[in-house]
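Module 6 notes. Inverse folding takes a fixed backbone as the condition and produces residue identities as the prediction. Think of it as a translation problem where the source language is geometry and the target language is the twenty amino acids. Below is one complete input and output pair. Work through it position by position during the lab.
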């Protein structure tokens, strides 16, 4: 099934907006309308319409301004300016700024059809809708690839969420399995697809926020509650109103805050720091963690009551090694993405022998590791086809490192091995597995951060 082409109509004149959307829907387009410029560029970025019909005169902000921003951000949407006849000069200016065309009010139904169809034919039939979406990495990056039974089951489960009016979801799984991607999928199904609109998605990293800040960040504060509180500030929960908040790495949340979070989940209100009023919140709370929470509960590091509250609706994303059948689709997906991003003339392919190796590797860093490896191969090798020789030694097992797991001894192969290569391999593995976070990579290798930095430089791995 082909997805309909999207057209965004932006006009504060409701008559015009509804006329345009009726005409374009009849033409088979997927149409959304907006009447104010508030968050418009964000919405365009998120929805990625092929064509935007943009009124030049909008309240608060001129259409020209928005056009400039669309051009500046390099968004692939084509813009048609809507002008009143006395601004014909502005229309010319708009064309210079990158608008694809313009329509002068009052326009006829036929004019609208001709202008939009022409752009769509020119822009889209030539390049294919897919391509347009692919170059736009933010939209592309939300695509959840995978047809394994596990992924299908998760998607089906999430589909059922929308009817069950669920307000908290817990997503667990190893690092790099796609928990955040699933969280965004939950958000889309709950707030965007079912309501056919845009809803806020706010992400909070519970491990990264300093304890002194986290409460005021989450719940907001009232003016005067501490020295720097010069004015009221909305917390992240309130900013997620009508949408979702992602509490990333919830397993690392401090005990004191866990109690406060539990209260929020139960009362469904927040109280800003220094405030006396409770603010009701209508937010889906999605918590993710790669820690085993029930173990954490046993160890006394996680509140049992919060664990129960969170796990009423629970999704577990299995590691990649348990759903290897997803690998071919992921290969195709990432290769086409990186080939486009790095402007390869033809998309990089994987030779069957190399694919075999990729399929049998156990991917401790899961999809993130696969993605990072493919990006590196596309950038560094520049070959049209990836063959086993391009793959790092730890995948092909040449360096004999695989045997070292579980405290076992590395056997020196009969023909010997290069200690330098081995070191390089291990450092690369650590970097790849930790998403190039040198602090974490150093920890994995049990060396100091400075030593790692020195080695990376020395071995030319930067
Ligand atoms: N099914 C998938 N299809 C396409 N890309 C995926 C898929 N799963 C994961 N990815 C990609 O892999 C990377 C890691 O995914 P994500 O950040 O969601 O993992 P995570 O489980 O949240 O990891 P961590 O626990 O380390 O935060 C991201 O770039 C994401 O886009
Ligand atoms: Mg994550």
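Target side of the pair, the amino acids:
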């Amino acid at each position: 099934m082909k997805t309909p082409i999207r057209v965004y109509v932006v006009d504060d004149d409701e008559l015009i907006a509804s006329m345009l959307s009726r005409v374009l829907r009849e033409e088979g387009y997927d149409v959304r309308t907006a009447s104010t410029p508030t968050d418009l560029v964000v919405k365009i970025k998120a929805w990625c319409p092929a064509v935007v019909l943009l009124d030049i005169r909008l309240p608060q902000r001129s259409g020209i301004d928005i056009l400039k921003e669309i051009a500046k951000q390099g968004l692939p949407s084509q813009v048609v300016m809507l002008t009143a006849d006395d601004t014909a000069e502005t229309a010319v200016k708009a064309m210079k700024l990158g608008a694809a065309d313009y329509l002068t009010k009052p326009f006829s139904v036929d004019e609208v059809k001709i202008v939009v169809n022409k752009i769509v034919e020119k822009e889209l039939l030539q390049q294919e809708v897919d391509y347009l979406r692919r170059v736009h990495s933010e939209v592309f990056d939300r695509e959840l690839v995978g047809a394994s039974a596990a992924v299908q089951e998760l998607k089906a489960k999430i589909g059922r969420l929308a009817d069950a009016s669920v307000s908290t979801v817990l997503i667990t799984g190893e690092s790099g399995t796609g928990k955040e991607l699933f969280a965004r999928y939950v958000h889309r199904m709950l707030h965007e697809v079912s309501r056919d609109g845009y809803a806020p998605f706010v992400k909070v990293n519970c491990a990264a926020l300093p304890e002194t800040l986290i409460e005021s960040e989450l719940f907001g504060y009232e003016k005067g509650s501490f020295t720097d509180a010069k004015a009221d500030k909305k917390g992240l929960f309130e900013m997620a109103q009508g949408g979702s908040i992602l509490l990333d790495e919830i397993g690392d949340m401090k005990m004191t805050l866990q109690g406060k979070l539990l209260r929020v989940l139960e009362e469904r209100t927040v109280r800003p720091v220094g405030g006396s009023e409770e603010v009701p919140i209508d937010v889906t709370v999605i918590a993710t963690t790669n820690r085993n929470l029930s173990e954490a509960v046993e160890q006394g590091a996680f509140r049992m009551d919060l664990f129960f509250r969170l796990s009423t609706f629970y999704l577990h994303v299995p590691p990649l090694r348990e759903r290897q059948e997803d690998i071919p689709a992921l290969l195709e997906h990432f290769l086409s993405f990186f080939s486009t991003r790095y402007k390869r003339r033809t998309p990089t392919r994987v030779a069957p022998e190399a694919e075999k190796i990729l399929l049998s590797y156990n991917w401790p860093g899961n999809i993130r590791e696969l993605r990072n490896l493919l990006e590196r191969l596309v950038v560094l090798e520049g070959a049209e086809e990836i063959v086993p020789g391009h793959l790092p030694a730890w995948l092909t097992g040449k360096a004999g490192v695989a045997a070292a797991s579980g405290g076992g001894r590395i056997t020196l192969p009969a023909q010997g091995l290069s200690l330098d290569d081995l070191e390089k391999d291990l450092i690369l593995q650590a970097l790849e597995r930790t998403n190039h976070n040198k602090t974490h990579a150093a920890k994995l290798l049990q060396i100091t951060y400075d030593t790692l930095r020195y080695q990376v430089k020395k071995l030319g791995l930067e």
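Reference fact for the lab report: The pocket of adenosine-5'-triphosphate (ligand 1) is lined by residues 141, 143-146, 173, 175-181, 288, 290, 333, 367-368, 371 (CB under 6 Å).
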